[in-house]
Fold each of these.
Amino acid sequence: MDKKLMTIDLNSQILIEKAEKDGVETMYDRKNGFKSQCGFGLQGTCCRICGMGPCRISPKTPRGLCGADEHTIVGRNFARMVAGGTAAHSDHARDIAHTLALSSRDGNYKIRDEKKLIELAIDWGVETECRDIYDIAHEVAEIGLMEFGKPHGVSIFLKNAPKVRQEIWKTIGIEPRAIDREIATVMHSTHIGCSADIDSLINLSLRTSMADGWQGSMIGTRFSDIMFGTPMPTQTEANLGVLEENKVNIILHGHEPTLSEMIVLAADDPELLALAKEMGAEGINLSGMCCTGNEITMRHGVKIAGDFHQQELALVTGAVEAMIVDVQCIFPALAYVADCYHTKFITTSPKAKITGSTYMQFSEENAYKDAKKIVKEAVLNFKNRKPEKVLIPEFKSPATVGYSIDAILSQLDRVVNFNVDKTGTVKPLIDCLKSGVIRGVAAVVGCNNAKSVTNKNHVTIMKELIKNDILVVSTGCGAQAAAKFGLMDKGAKKLCGKGLATVCELVDIPPVLHMGSCVDISRIVDIVSECAKYLDVDMCDIPAVGIAPEWMSEKAVAIGTYVVASGIDTYLGIAPPVTGSKKAVEILTNGLKKEVGAAFTINENPDELAAIIIDDIEKKRDHFEK
Ligand code: BF8
């Protein structure tokens, strides 16, 4: 296949061509190299759980050596994907919690949102009167850390859900206990000789995913806001055109804001700025990729270089002095691509060491010093840039980002209530939904996947939804697709139906709202929960849906599962590896509806998927309007 047809991003197409000329291999070459992918893997029917395997299930060999059938094998593989995703998100949250425990008035990490900290402290029964804010922070951090391994009880966040939803979770036994415990339980139950019942395996998957959504991710988002500030609307630009020819270009890629926040500070250090000048550069230009990109654009307006599929192509510009990474979604191939140019590929976390990279460990205890050292390495590399190898493609789009719940509600309050009656609640949002000006809310989230044309599913679906008056909120690489294609620009209201266009005009928002990183899907779950509580209904009664048009990671599987467990229908543009078990497909796409009031829908055609979503939202409205 022509590699340029594998993405709809024009910058990417230009750089795919340049990579070819430079003799550099990228994901798009490797995709062409894999003529066909393993059918057993695609369907989830390959079992590698014990040393007797791999056992591959087919009509001729319907059972593995231990007798496991396709339902057991698919169920176990699915549960392990959920556990992998939950582990990644929650370990991110654990690091943030440890950092909050380290916070101090004169240290690297400070409390930026005292109000949010106090609210959480009160909610968790922490004494707040006449206490130093840092003592409160440390006690809150300690409670957060206990969520990972407490021996008794269930997630501290469940009580925030509508009562009827809590009852459902209790009845079907999916209230998550401690985060690490749920992950360990899945690893145990899916070991050879344990769970061999598809219903039970999916039930275990739901409970583990709940530890991701209603525990780890909530800790990650809340504690990040407390330390780094709750995002508010800010202006930025997106796509590789944000790189600057005359500056030291540093791209931050990965996930945890503990590193990126320090790099943002260090990039402003007068000493390093002077060094950049000495090297012949006009300054330091920071930009972000993947979820780290989302974290720093939401809080500081740092420009978005691109998404998951653009990480190699960013280096192909020949204009990047350093790609600084921490954990998750980092191609090992970056070491090879960086080698073809002058770029320093700097890994920083003992959890994600990569052969061929420059390893510069970052520790929270030494945060600013470490960050400064890393930025210095990038600045010193400017002199090694080879101008003849530089090509910065020109495309970039303006975007307004930073829509935390707090930002959305205050914006709606300001305009819908004309500043007269500030509710501080979801009432204005409910009013828009109830009146039908906005038909529903869709969270279009997640990754890029080489199984589909990069960005096509995201952009097609988002455009179709806003055209039909459905407000879109987005996180992860989906948010970056929206930003790159101008859908987070306020001018995109011209692509909306009349109702949504009016709301965008009145409220002064774009039709696709950037709500953060993938961990921040907790913000989306929170707002649906608040709407349900306001109306005294269940979360499944709100015309809100989750969509992952190009998902690829285990984290996305965990997210989709907890979103469904929360009563929110979820739509996938890529089939997950479960199709080898009819029973698994039936439970995930239908059976769960009876249990949790929501299920998955899978359709790999983005136009068809958009039509199904719009139809389902309208059906949900019948009930909602009553
Ligand atoms: O956690 S959307 S490719 S960057 S996994 Fe990764 Fe997927 Fe991007 Fe963030 Ni989320």
Amino acid sequence: MDDRQFRSAMGKFATGVTVITTEVEGEIHGMTANAFMSVSLDPKLVVISIGEKAKILNKIKESKIFTVNILAADQEELSMIFAGQLKEHKEVTFERLDGKPVLSGAVAQIACEVSAEHVEGDHTLFIGKVTDIHLEDAEPLVFYNGKYRSLVELKPVTI
Ligand code: FAD
Ligand code: NAD
């Protein structure tokens, strides 16, 4: 099986888009990620999966904290900025949640402390213990088949 077939299959799983942030010695670093999942309610745990070549990997290992910012439908540009897909450098301002850097306008800001890390293949899974949450009433950005989308509400099934 080639890489393209694997990625095409994984791309059929529609996801939201997040920007993961962390901070080391006052320097904030962000990275776009869709490998994010809720893990446990008691205690409240989430998981993110970071590639071995990503610069943010060692920064999270060092800081032992990260935030997950679930992007809103109008934040496609932020997704591109933090995926390194824009040519020009754009200044981004951050807010704070539980002292950690978060993006304003995100549908959800989730502040975490690393509670465990597991190397699996060419990625590292970080389990985050959730320390604070902030929610906004907005529509999410969606990623499907390698493209950005927005949600369309379906009519309820009538029985
Ligand atoms: P860089 O590539 O250096 O940084 C990313 C970009 O963010 C750079 O352009 C940098 O200038 C900018 N940036 C960082 N900090 C700041 C700041 N403080 N202010 C302004 N700009 C800043 N990879 C994974 O490992 N896991 C995933 O789950 C994942 N999901 C993805 C989902 C989508 C939809 C996309 C498009 C990409 C995804 N990627 C994922 C790939 C990942 O986003 C890129 O490989 C990314 O470039 C890796 O970032 P980096 O940490 O190596 O740092
Ligand atoms: P794509 O077709 O490369 O990705 C489709 C799906 O495949 C993604 O949603 C993800 O589930 C999976 N995937 C892609 N690259 C992967 C990787 N290196 N490791 C594990 N799973 C991976 O979509 P695209 O729009 O071409 O992506 C843009 C860039 O972002 C590509 O360079 C891609 O590799 C990277 N990306 C990485 C991850 C990841 O590391 N988990 C996830 C999404 C996108």
